[in-house]
Structures are given as structure tokens and as C-alpha cells.
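Async update (no meeting this week)

Hi team, since we skipped the sync, here's where things stand on the single-chain job. The sequence we agreed to prioritize is pasted below, unchanged from the tracker. I ran it this morning and attached the output directly underneath so nobody has to dig for it. Comments welcome in thread, and please keep replies under the output.
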Amino acid sequence: MELVLLIGVQASGKSTFFKKRFVDTHVRINLDMLRTRSRERILFEACIQAKQPMVVDNTNPTEKDRARYITPAKKAGFKITGYYFQTAIQESIKRNRLRPYSQIIPIKGIAATCNRLELPNFQEGFDELYRVILLGRGKFGVKRSVESDTDAHSKK
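Output:
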């Protein structure tokens, strides 16, 4: 049982990463697709009850945003893995322009998410944390965080 949280501004590669790495093994929970928090909550709770591995493919910019998923998943015994997508805002804006017209995010929206973004940390409840960068041509660089869960707890 695993909850994967994708964290980063719009057009940073999160959905492409999901499709390359998790499409065959995890249910995708995504507000763009589900449209409402109510539908998202229903699907999330169903995955918790069914012990179904899942990926929350939203921006998840703040610790508070991530806690809505981490707290109940942790309580249900899920492993919590986070992937933080490190990207410059200008790169996201450039990739955003390449999206189909109906999927383009206003630049103000990307900037607002960037301004709210809080780096994830082990104190939030993550069992594993990774930093992801786009390498181009659909490839990603993934680096495991060097801070261990034990180190995080000793800093409290």
C-alpha cells in the first residue's frame, strides 16, 4: 500500500512522470480530471479502504495541502512517498504553452502556485522523498533525498 504525492507547479512534468512510472500500478487522483474536491475525496477514501496504491497528481504546494492525504493514509498503514518536481517558473511557462489549448494554465496561476510552494520534508510524514528534474525528451532525473526518516525525527 503506497500513497505517492507529486509536488510542483503546473507544467513541471508531474502527469507525464505518473504515466511513465505509475500508470500500470497506481490509481491516479487528479483534480483536473475529477473536477471537484468531493469526487476527489470519494476516490481517495475508496483507495484507502481498498488498500489500493494511488498517486495524487495535483500541485500539492503546501504542507497543509499535503496533510489532507498524508494523515489518513498514514493512519491506514500506507507508505508515503513524495516526488518534488524542481523547475524554474520560466521553464514551466514555456512547457505550458506547448499544451493543448484547453489545458493551458494562466501564467498568473503558475506564478501563484510557485509563490505558495513549500518544499516537502520528512517531518510531514513522508517515508521517502525524491527530487525530480526534467532532462528533456520525456526523461527524468530522480534523486533520493539524503535526509533519512530517523534524521528527521531527531531534529524535532
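Quick observations from my side:
The beta strands are 2-7, 27-29, 54-57, 79-85, 128-136, 139-144.
The CA atoms of residues 102 and 137 lie 23 Å apart.
Reply here if anything looks off.
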